[in-house]
Structures are given as structure tokens and as C-alpha cells.
Amino acid sequence: MSTASERPRPIDGVWGRDLGDEYVFYEQDGDKVHVLNGTAREIFLLLDGERTIQDVVAALARRYAVDDETLSRDVAETVAHLRKLRLLRD
Q1: In whole angstroms, how far apart are CA 75 and each of 2, 9, 28?
Q2: Angle between helical axes of 38-46 and 53-63 (0-180°, round to 10)
Q3: Nearest-angstrom CA–CA distance, 2 and 64
Q4: Are the beta carbons of 38 and 22 closer than 8 angstroms?
Q5: What is the pLDDT of residue 1?
Q6: How far is CA 84 from CA 12, 19, 56, 79, in A?
Q7: What average pLDDT is seen over the chain?
Q8: Residue of 60, 31, 30 lying closest to 44 (CA atoms)
Q9: N or C: lower Cβ tally within 10 Å for the chain?
Q10: What pLDDT digit, counting tens, does each position of 21-45 carry?
């Protein structure tokens, strides 16, 4: 489970393409492709190793009329999913 002070970032060796409303990843060996929907795309693009998870929640709160509790849960779930796909490192 993620903590608000973590600063995850994309792993090396994964090539991605931003398609505007989604993000497509190709693993280095070319065997797997992952597609993120628009919301996951926004979260992923904010995870740069400089921002904390709480910074990401705050940035999204400025853009959308969603309460912090919901945003925090959604960001934590997305980060966990990206880790499961091995697209993030701390």
C-alpha cells in the first residue's frame, strides 16, 4: 500500500506513448502492451519521482471537483495497479 510521502516514478526500459486520452506502454522485450485510461494516464504522468503521492492528489483536486478521500483512494489504487504491472519504482 502506498503512503502519501512516497515519490514513485516510471521504471526504466518501458517505452510509452501518450495518446491524449490514454497512454500505451510497450515492455522492453515487446511481449506486453499496457493501456491506461484517461484518469490513470493523468496520475501516471504526475508520478515523476519528484512529486509525492499527496502532491498528485492535490494536483488532481485542483482540476476536478472530487473530495480528497476519494482522490486519495483512487490514486493509491492506481499506483498499486501500476506497480503490479511493474511500471513504477520508488
Answers
A1: 9, 14, 26
A2: 130
A3: 22
A4: yes
A5: 56
A6: 15, 22, 19, 9
A7: 88
A8: 60
A9: N
A10: 899 988 776 678 889 999 999 999 9
| CB burial readout 25-37, b (16+ within 10 A) else e | bebeeeeeebebe
Strand order in the sheet with 33-36: 14-18, 23-27, 33-36
DSSP β-bridge partners for residue 10? 88
Q: For the chain, give every domain's residue range.
A: 9-89
The pTM (predicted TM-score) of the whole model is 0.85
According to the CATH classification, is domain 9-89 in 1.10.10.1150? yes
| CA-closest candidate to residue 60, choices 50, 48, 45 | 45
pLDDT digits over 2-21, tens only?
677 899 998 887 778 889 88
Nearest to 38 by CA among 63, 14, 13, 15: 63
